[in-house]
Design brief:
The complex is a heterodimer of chains A (291) and B (290).
Chain A: H1 11-25, E1 30-32, E2 46-49, E3 55-60, H2 69-80, E4 85-92, H3 99-107, E5 111-115, E6 121-124, H4 144-160, H5 162-186, H6 198-201, H7 210-220, H8 233-243, H9 256-283
Parallel strand pairs in A: 3-4, 4-5
Antiparallel strand pairs in A: 1-2, 2-3, 5-6
Chain B: E1 9-14, E2 18-19, H1 31-44, E3 50-55, E4 58-63, H2 65-73, E5 78-84, H3 89-103, H4 108-126, H5 132-139, H6 143-153, H7 157-167, H8 178-194, H9 202-214, H10 223-232, H11 244-251, H12 259-265, H13 268-289
Parallel strand pairs in B: 2-4, 3-5
Antiparallel strand pairs in B: 1-5, 3-4
Helix pairs in contact in B: 1-2, 3-4, 4-6, 8-10, 10-12, 11-12
The chains are: A alpha/beta (291), B alpha/beta (290).
């Protein structure tokens, strides 16, 4: 690796970080001190792309006590351009840092690697920078029953896979939808005098298609009878909108630009699905109460 | 060949067409210093042009390697540069010394490393080895800097490597600095001059002193000056109890015996006495003037 900027005493740290990232995230091709995108000048020490087109940047430094202006601007530029980037600051193992300094790194969404030829240690996991600044979720508004899953969704969305993060929330919404459908049949909260179409007659609420269950509720659920005024067609229609993204994980964007476009959409969808879930939990309280 | 704007063309040249100068005496670039410059260039741009000479379609740096490195990091396309005529090898080296060593705080050891090439170059040109005065004139360095450099050049290779490794560390983390070796070498030279037969194996003594410094038995590099004082006490007849030689012998062996201890046990009082005597005689002289 031919470094122009990095001091010679940090070359070993750079090489150790490279092999760590290679083994951990499966990146095989790296660029040295080169720009990561045409809109950004600053070249991090090393960067490479994952199979999913995410850009992984490593900035090698002597310590983390100060983030210089140029690097700070680089982070802001990545966010402003909504680039799918993860940034790790790599320091030589053994360099001391305070918990306050680590907190600052975390606040910026950066990772911290204590790099060593033999034994590197990822002290802080980097977030997907373009996804780290979504609206903060107020977890305490959700019943305890869901909180663990929602934290998992949040961390998966920001740290590993935004698609999978969203899927975790969809699954929770789907789970509640199925319960509502089952209860509606069991307690006869269905509209009267409407003949069920054939596709709903043998519907299995446990394993049947989520979209069809929502369509069933939209057509036949009597929210007045169930005393759930908020569980209306408007909310159900918004849930139906989510069902088409249930299998999104299978479609991988083919380029950085496509990935960027998809993740911008996912950001909105992530926030929306959290809102829908909360609305659904509150709306179905007369039928099913979660503690 | 003087470097000035009149003999040069000022142009914006592509950064990718510039190569490092292999003769640049500066071999250590500290990250902190580079980052400070990077910040400045990010905010204000390159305010001072670099100096280069042309070789074919490419350019070789004479002055401005740090600016060039920073521009690389910021992926700037061009940099302002003064384009000079291609210098001879010796001219190239002397140019760099005169540009850098006077303007910036270079590491002494990096100067020392290239000083050998300059001495060789002048020797080839003029047929005789340059003295300190000539070297000072040619390089723009003071004679005391040249003397300190020579002390470093004469160190065994393994200690030179130690310095090079230390130099790559940030200043506050450097233990075996150039100053440590200079102070130690001076004290050893004084000892050899004052008591010629005392040091049989100089390298062994060096190793012992280095280890003592590493283990904090010798706490400060200025204590080597006291070691020199102990040795000098012999020709100065200050070592009345004849303990100096024994103390130095003990000091040069692997143990916990420090220079401070040796000095206090041998000649500390004698030097204080000498000091007071000198002050009294100086005072008496001044009083006599009245």
């Amino acid at each position: 690796m031919n470094f122009h900027f990095l001091s010679e005493n940090l070359h070993d740290t750079a090489l150790a970080s490279k092999s760590f990232i290679k083994n951990r995230f499966g990146i095989s091709k790296f660029n040295v001190e080169q720009s990561i995108h045409k809109s950004i000048g600053y070249g991090p020490t090393i960067h490479g792309k994952t199979k999913e087109n995410y850009i992984f940047c490593i900035e090698v430094r002597e310590n983390i006590n100060r983030i210089h202006v140029a690097f700070n601007e680089f982070i802001s530029e990545c966010m402003r351009n909504c680039l799918p980037v993860k940034i790790i600051i790599a320091i030589p193992k053994g360099v001391k840092y305070s918990s306050k300094e680590l907190k600052n790194i975390k606040k910026l969404g950066l990772g911290l690697l204590e790099a060593d030829k033999q034994d590197s240690y990822l002290a802080e996991i980097p977030t997907n920078l373009h996804l780290s600044h979504v609206r903060p979720i107020e977890f305490n508004k959700y019943p305890i029953y869901f909180r663990e899953k929602l934290h998992e969704a949040d961390s998966t969305f920001k740290n590993t896979s935004p698609v999978k993060g969203c899927l975790i929330i969809y699954e929770e919404i789907e789970y509640i939808s199925r319960i509502i459908a089952e209860e509606a049949i069991k307690k006869d909260f269905l509209k009267k005098n409407i003949k069920l179409p054939k596709k709903f007659k043998n519907l299995n609420f446990k394993i049947g298609s989520w979209a069809i269950i929502i369509q069933f509720l939209m057509g036949h659920f009597d929210y007045k009878k169930a005393k759930c005024p908020q569980l209306n067609t408007s909310l159900l229609a918004r849930i139906l909108g989510l069902t088409s993204h249930r299998n999104d994980a299978g479609h991988k964007p083919q380029s950085l630009e496509k990935l960027k476009e998809r993740d911008i959409q996912l950001r909105t969808r992530y926030e929306t699905s959290f809102d829908i879930l909360l609305e659904l939990i509150n709306a179905c309280k007369p039928i099913k109460r979660f503690s | 060949m003087p470097i000035n704007a009149e003999n040069s063309d000022l142009k914006q040249i592509p950064i990718k067409n510039i190569d490092k100068n292999p003769d640049n005496p500066r071999v250590v670039f500290r990250q902190k210093e580079l980052e400070e410059l990077l910040e400045s260039i990010k905010i204000y741009g390159v305010q001072v042009p670099i100096a280069v000479y042309k070789v074919g379609k490419r350019f070789v740096l004479i002055d401005g390697e740090r600016r060039w490195r920073c521009c690389h990091k910021l992926n700037l396309k061009t940099i302002p540069a003064l384009i000079q005529k291609k210098p001879s090898k010796l001219e190239n080296l002397l140019l760099m010394f005169n540009i850098h060593a006077l303007r910036e705080q270079w590491d002494l050891f990096t100067i020392a490393l290239k000083l050998t090439s300059i001495i060789e170059g002048i020797k080839n040109d003029s047929g005789k080895t340059p003295n300190e005065q000539t070297l000072a004139q040619k390089t723009g360095l003071t004679r005391s800097v040249i003397r300190r450099c020579k002390m470093l050049i004469e160190l065994p290779e393994k200690h030179k490597n130690t310095i090079l490794i230390e130099l790559k560390k940030p200043k506050h983390l450097q233990k075996f600095s150039e100053d440590f070796f200079i102070e130690m070498e001076r004290a050893l030279k004084t000892t050899e001059r004052a008591i010629p037969d005392l040091i049989k194996d100089k390298e062994k003594v060096r190793e012992v002193l280095i280890e003592k410094y590493e283990k904090d038995v010798i706490k400060n590099i200025v204590h080597f000056r006291d070691m020199a004082k102990i040795a000098r006490s012999v020709p100065l007849n200050l070592d009345k109890n004849q303990k100096a030689e024994t103390a130095l012998k003990k000091l040069f062996k692997e143990n916990e015996y420090s220079i401070e201890q040796a000095f206090n046990e041998t000649v500390s009082e004698a030097y204080t006495e000498k000091d007071i005597t000198q002050k009294i005689s100086s005072l008496t002289e001044q009083l006599n003037l009245f």
